[in-house]
Structures are given as C-alpha cells and as structure tokens.
Amino acid sequence: MPTNRALITGVTGQDGSYLAELLLARGYEVHGVIRRSSSFNTDRIDHLYRDPHEPGVRFFLHYADLTDAAALSRLLHRIQPTEVYNLGAQSHVRVSFDQPVFTAEINAVGTLKLLEAIRDVQDRVGRPVRFYQASSSEIFGGTPQEVPQRETTPFRPRSPYGAAKLYAHWMTVNYREAYGLHASCGILFNHESERRGETFVTRKITRAATRIAVGLQHKLFLGNLEARRDWGFAGDYVQAMWLMLQQERPDDYVVATGESHSVREFCDRAFSRLGLKYHDHVEHDPRYLRPTEVEHLMGDATRARTVLGWRPSVTFDELVDRMVDADLALARRELTLQQAGHK
Ligand code: NAP
Ligand code: GDD
C-alpha cells in the first residue's frame, strides 16, 4: 500500500499531467479531479490511465468541481490524501476580463472551499494534510521598477485572474498562520511545454509557425509583441511544487528561470527554427490586447534555489525548439490527414 496519497485538482491541465507523472514515478497513489465535459478532456493524462479493475492501479479519477464544496469535501473524506495540489483554475488571463465573476468563483472562492474541506478532514482524521496552492507571477502585476520580482515584491495584480489568484494566495497564507495548516504557495512564472493550451501565446506561436511551415495556414494574428515573460519548462516546475510539500515547514516560493524574453523574441526563435521569418507571417490584431497589460515579468528564484535546491534544467532556446519540434510532427500528421481527405 503506498503511504503517500495525493489529490490533484486540475489534473487534466498541462501542470496536472506532469505532476501526476512525477508522483506516480515516486510511488504515490494519485487521485485526480476531473470535470464533466461533453467532449473528451483527458488527452494529457490518457497515457497514465489504467482500467481500475486491473491489479496494482495507482491512478484514479473522480468527478468534482472547485465550485462544488460538498463534492470536494466528500472526496477528501473518502480519499484522505496526505498531499493536496490545487492546480485547478480558469487559467487564461485575457479570458478573465470577459468572465471575471466565473474566474473569481473558481480561482478565489474555489480555493477557499478546498481549504475549508481540508481543515475539516484534517480535524476529523487527526492526520496532517499538506497543501500546495498554484499562485502566479500575475499577482505581481510587473511594474517596471520592480523587476525582478521575488517573494517580498509588493503584489499589484492587473487582471481579474491576478486579483482572484491573490485572494487565494492570501487565504492559503492565512490558513497556514491561523490553523497551522502545512500550506505552501508556489508563485510560478510562466511555464510551457508541448502540452500547453493552444490559446497561450507560446503554443499559439509554435502551432501557427509549424502549420505555416507545412502550408496549412499563412498568417498568425497576435496582440502585444513587446510584453516580456520569464518562460520555463513545465516539467521542471512541477518538481518545485513537490519539493515545497516535502519541507518540514511550509512557505511561499518564487519559481522562475531569472531570464525574460519578449513575445517578439519567441516568434523570432520559433519561425527561425523552421527556416522562416516571423515578420512575413505575423500580423497585429487588437482583439488580443488586454485592457490592462503586465509588461514585464522576470523572477528571482533565490529562495527556491537555496531552500529547495531547485533549478530549471531547460533553457529558453531549448524550450522553443522542443515545442516547435513537437508541433511540427503534429502539423505533418494534420497535413497527411488532410491530403487523405479526412479533414
Ligand atoms: P491549464 O492547463 O489551463 O489547466 C487548468 C486545469 O484546471 C484543467 O485541468 C481544468 O480542467 C481545471 N479546471 C478549470 N476549472 C475548474 C473547476 N471549476 N474545477 C476543477 N478544475 C477546474 O493550467 P496550467 O498551465 O496547467 O496551470 C496550472 C495551475 O497553475 C493553474 O491554477 C494556473 O492558474 C496556475 N499557473 C500556471 C502558470 C503557467 O504558466 N502555466 C503559471 C502560474 C500559475 P479542464 O481540463 O476540464 O478544463
Ligand atoms: N494569449 C495570448 N494571445 N497572448 C498574447 C497574444 C495572443 O495572441 N499576443 C500577445 N500576447 C501576450 C499577452 O498580452 C501577454 O503579455 C503574453 O503574451 C503572455 O500571454 P499568455 O501566454 O496568455 O500568458 P499570461 O502571461 O497572460 O498568463 C500565463 O502565465 C501566468 C503566470 O505569469 C498563464 O499561464 C497564467 O495562468 C499564469 O498564471
């Protein structure tokens, strides 16, 4: 019987899939929360799933939702996890301007519902439950005089997403201080991979550039090309999440590479790898601008480095290249299907 049992909200997302892999490799029993959807939403974790009737299965999925306090509470009582990772969120900053209330209900109040359920189950079972909260560099807002951002940098969110994440961040800190919960916040800067959602800028660029390279499309429409982000590899960042929960004392940590690049630089690198020039294909569309933009995020991960021993292993160039290479394979498959009359 595994002694470590983890519950992950957001297991179907980019980070959830990497974290589930990491925990399973470390011998955990892993339980993931999934939402009912009319179309399949488990592509990123299908390779981990086994028929639960088979012997030795350690990965289980459960229907629940961060807006449903009763379902969360029931799940926690049934599973009695030793660690809970709260990765579930409406995670798109631009979308949060269109759906601010929905974003707050999931990202802010949803986290509070989970914290309440954990407090309750911990009291009843008499065993500590360690909690990880997916905080975000969006809570800094990125004023130019405050770069790089670290744990002590003031928070000034500039989006409904950032404000909701800041509420969840402070509630997590409050539950740690008020009730002694082993609760840690990872203030993660942007992290990407070939599993990144296709409407985030990096994946939008690598998908479009590779489709352009094989002749499936001609243009890519983007918003602000001058915004700068500190982009790392998601596989590295889930290591930091796990390390936080292995510490004797809970705390909050910035997780970042310490290097920033503009969206324009990302385009340049991605198109160049395919032998293309980005300015021949990229066009501006003001629809992708945000009412308030975060211009520059770059993190100082000294605390994570010294306390957790965490370091990123993938450079910016390596990250762009691996995303382009994965999407080129995808674009070629799409082309083959199209040529065979399947699309
Ligand atoms: P993602 O790919 O968008 O995944 C989000 C996950 O949340 C999905 O599994 C989604 O389920 C789930 N979810 C959405 N609404 C939910 C609800 N009401 N109840 C339960 N689950 C719900 O995001 P990610 O990039 O993996 O990020 C993971 C977490 O880290 C998020 O909280 C995000 O805000 C935060 N974060 C991300 C970054 C980054 O750069 N990636 C940086 C800082 C912080 P469906 O698949 O059903 O939609
Ligand atoms: N999505 C998108 N689409 N962004 C664009 C576009 C476009 O067409 N054109 C320019 N951008 C710019 C955005 O204005 C922003 O400055 C930057 O590209 C990055 O946008 P996203 O990739 O959407 O990520 P984000 O930084 O807003 O949010 C991500 O990182 C946060 C951590 O800092 C998300 O993963 C959040 O969930 C996460 O908390």
Short overview:
The chain is α/β, with parallel strands linked by helices. It has two domains: 5-195 and 232-255, Rossmann fold, CATH 3.40.50; 201-225 and 261-296 and 316-339, UDP-galactose 4-epimerase, domain 1.
As residue ranges, the low-confidence spans are none
Morphology call: globular
Q: Report the CATH architecture of the largest domain.
A: 3-Layer(aba) Sandwich
| Number of distinct beta strands | 13
* Name of the CATH homologous superfamily of the largest domain: NAD(P)-binding Rossmann-like Domain
Summarize the topology.
Elements: E1 5-9, H1 14-25, E2 29-34, E3 59-63, H2 69-79, E4 83-86, H3 93-98, H4 100-125, E5 130-136, H5 160-179, E6 183-188, E7 191-192, H6 201-213, E8 220-222, E9 228-229, E10 232-233, H7 234-246, E11 252-255, E12 261-262, H8 263-273, E13 282-284, H9 302-308, H10 316-339
Parallel strand pairs: 1-2, 1-4, 2-3, 4-5, 5-6, 6-11, 7-10, 8-13
Antiparallel strand pairs: 9-12
Helix pairs in contact: 1-7, 2-4, 4-5, 6-8, 6-10, 8-10
Bound molecules: NADP nicotinamide-adenine-dinucleotide phosphate and guanosine-5'-diphosphate-alpha-D-mannose.
The site of guanosine-5'-diphosphate-alpha-D-mannose has 22 residues, from helix 3 and helix 6.
What does this structure look like?
With 343 residues, the protein is α/β, with parallel strands linked by helices. It folds into two domains: 5-195 and 232-255, 3-Layer(aba) Sandwich (Rossmann fold), CATH 3.40.50.720; 201-225 and 261-296 and 316-339, UDP-galactose 4-epimerase, domain 1 (Alpha-Beta Complex). Helix content is 42%, strand content 15%. The strands form four sheets. The protein has a seven-stranded parallel beta sheet with strand order 3-2-1-4-5-6-11, sandwiched between helices. The protein has a two-stranded parallel ribbon with strand order 7-10. Strands 8-13 form a two-stranded parallel ribbon. Bound molecules: NADP nicotinamide-adenine-dinucleotide phosphate and guanosine-5'-diphosphate-alpha-D-mannose. NADP nicotinamide-adenine-dinucleotide phosphate (NAP) is lined by residues 9-10, 12-16, 33, 35, 37, 41, 65-67, 87-91, 106, 134, 136, 188, 190-191, 197.
